[in-house]
Batch of 2 targets.
Target 1
Amino acid sequence: MNPIIRFDQVSVAVREKTILSNISFALFPGEKTVLCGKSGSGKSSVLRAFIGLHAVAGGVYFQQMQLTPASVHTIRSATAYIGQEPILGAETVREALLLPFQFKIHRNQRPPDARLGEVLNRLHLTVDILKRKCSRISGGEKQRIALARGLLLGKSLYLLDEITSALDAESKQAVFDVFSDPQLTVLSVAHDTEWLARCDRILELDAGRLVRERTYGNA
Ligand SMILES: Nc1ncnc2c1ncn2[C@@H]1O[C@H](COP(=O)(O)OP(=O)(O)OP(=O)(O)O)[C@@H](O)[C@H]1O
């Protein structure tokens, strides 16, 4: 089986400062992997490197395809990247959810309202949020709306940056339930021990280096 994500000796430098150093790992279909480590250790940079937001030295691969200026669009289209403060790109939540379906490639997949409600409920949100302004919803709500958009598009690869840190217990459980789906592959950043316990693998970073790989409970 080929990995969905592979980093082969990846380094990233921003303005001559090395922020990732020689990172190698692979993520296989259906796996849930979490990056942990101190603040500033490079966790979010790993996610950003995968979607081409950093210039990288070394190889970043999606399936067998290397990340290059020519492939970056394909990689982004296949991935649901949920950053700490997602930009939803629309005025209302309904518009944000339907935004990708305006484009030709997804036009005939436009979900009916019932489907929007179903996905929102799965994430412990109600349909009332559809008419709210994106500028007036919380960071945790924005992340769940970005997640809902990924689910509506049928994406199977999720890059999640601290998506449970701002959530109450019920919303967090809803997110856990969504990602208990064995079809979904997840590369996440988290500190939350409950999230770590649900992941197959924990990659620990320290000062931009991958220093340890373990499963929960195995120190
Ligand atoms: N665009 C950038 N320009 C300059 N420095 C950057 C940039 N992006 C990241 N860095 C630096 O790279 C290092 C790693 O940042 P990163 O956001 O990946 O850390 P993190 O482990 O995710 O931190 P946190 O847990 O606080 O979110 C930090 O020192 C950060 O200041």
Note: The beta strands are 5-14, 17-27, 32-37, 56-62, 65-66, 79-82, 157-161, 185-189, 201-206, 209-214.
Target 2
Amino acid sequence: MTDMRNFLKSYNTHAANANNEAVTIAWNYYTNITKENQAKMTESDLDMANFTKVWAAKANQFDWKRSDLNATEKRQFEKITQLGFSSVNDTAKIELKSNLEAELTGIYSTGKVCLTEFGKGCLELEPGLTDMMANSRNPNELLAAWKGWRDQTGKKMRTKYTEFVNVMNEMIKFSGFNDTGEYWRSWYEASTFESDVKKLYNELLPLYEQLHAYVRHKLKNKYGTALFPDTGHIPAHLLGNMWSQSWSNIYDLLTPYPNAISVDITQKMKDKGYNVTHMYRVAEEFFTSIGLDKMPTSFWNKSMLEKPANRDVVCHASAWDFYDGEDVRIKQCTSVTADQFLTVHHEMGHLIYFLAYAIQPVIFRRGGNPGFHEGMADIVSLSFQTPEHMHAIGLLDSIPNDKESDINFLMQMALEKIAFLPFGYLIDQWRWSVFRRETTPNNYNANWWDLRCGYQGISPPVQRTEQDFDPGAKYHIPGNTPYIRYFVSFVVQFQWHKALCDEIGYKGQLHRCDIYKNKTAGAKLRNMLALGSSKQWQDAMQVMTGGRNMSALPIIQYFTPLIDWLKEQNKEENIGWSAQCPSNIPSPDQTNNQARLSVSTETVCLIIVTLT
Ligand SMILES: C[C@H](N[C@H](C(=O)O)[C@@H]1CCCN1C(=O)[C@@H](N)CC(=O)O)C(=O)N1CCC[C@H]1C(=O)O
Ligand SMILES: [Zn+2]
């Protein structure tokens, strides 16, 4: 027994060092994309795979399953002996997987789109193309950015991604999984996980359908019905976001009551002279106000909070744990916008989780499940965006209490949280089907768009073929980060928000609850966070909510006032869209002619005005 306990202590010390080394080498690549740093990361991946194998073999020398170790000690052995991709003995496969992932992430992170016909020069995704998708109201410009990004990223990844899927599936077989998707789903420790999320999606679909119908109606008013297919889909490039996953940036086209109060966080931040550092200080102050940790000094010295001028980096924001209980970092090409401010809170939420479970043995320094980590990253956003909180931090002059302003606020939240649900759900529906070989390279893109049209009710603004590889235009596909975690997060964060608001005795409407400065709320949250993955997530859920399962009821309760309003607005609307994508999608040259025509029309008008 003591030798097993000594083994666990020894593992813990070695694993902390091994993880710290591996994360540092990965950090060097992600903050400086070079062939040399990629090679070092591949070397490190080989070392990590070897470390995992060696220590799993040592662990299995003990008859730990039949020992009288306690449940938590046995759970440590169980996790130490889970080999994942490391079980394969063929180092060539480990190297291939590592290089493909680095190259795919590199293609994504260095993609540039030259929009000379719109006088924009060559733009990177952040901030150039992201800002354009958010702020342009010119459909031709939006189409050029939307198509250009897919041409410069996904289109260049198709062959590598096919290889990537094959090598991952070959490797994971050695750990007893049929395919990579089955391995990824095993992290949720529930044999019914796939049907559980499907059930949640169906419970939430009515909310999304109402929002979709309202937004489609408003966008038709703005852009004219000619752009919209008669199948009920919304063209993907009009929703303010490169992937149509969050619609907050087109709120100005959707405002329910323009004469009532709306919170324009971007403008307010600019008015108040916010800079990047201040955004992080404000986010940190939220967490400390509820009794959670402040950022260690090393965070400020070692993070990459702005895009460096002189080298290629992976700009997609991320949170990094260096497994020494103190060194936690954010890598983000931060700019002063509302979206970015939310991401700052998101990434810092991950860091708060890292710091809270640093008390755990290294093998347990993970979220209760990956969706829990994302839920913690987002939970503060439900308090932080309330008019109450905006007023508390000086971004709103007074707290509006009229019905119209309340609907305006709920609309803003729905454009962020309801709009996301089908997107969060479908990414891994596609990937799981690829790993299962139900989706194969000759229908990668067709199946992707079947899901995008079917679940999201959006359509491609220009014809797509199997020369394209649109999944590759979304970070998590080349970056190989599973995505169902975000769908889980968008459900559980509302369960936790309700639980925290109940705990602090809040009696108002859930969507106006702000846990800011409430130490009771922070203490309850910390109790769950500190568990890490030492317990099954259902136990952690019980700590937070008293129940053991995911539930759609809190998010439905939160948005009910808006859904009732939307049903009123949508009385004349055909709710929903056809399951298949529209058949009459314009071809690229048709859209080019449209673009030339619209530019020339503008020019002609200008000449007439000048001549008269
Ligand atoms: C902007 C955010 N970046 C991810 C995140 O923070 O989750 C990054 C990249 C992938 C994993 N990751 C991490 O930082 C992990 N190390 C966190 C952990 O430790 O588990 C992101 O991708 N988001 C936020 C909302 C929806 C989604 C999107 O933008 O589509
Ligand atoms: Zn996250």
Note: The mean pLDDT is 96.
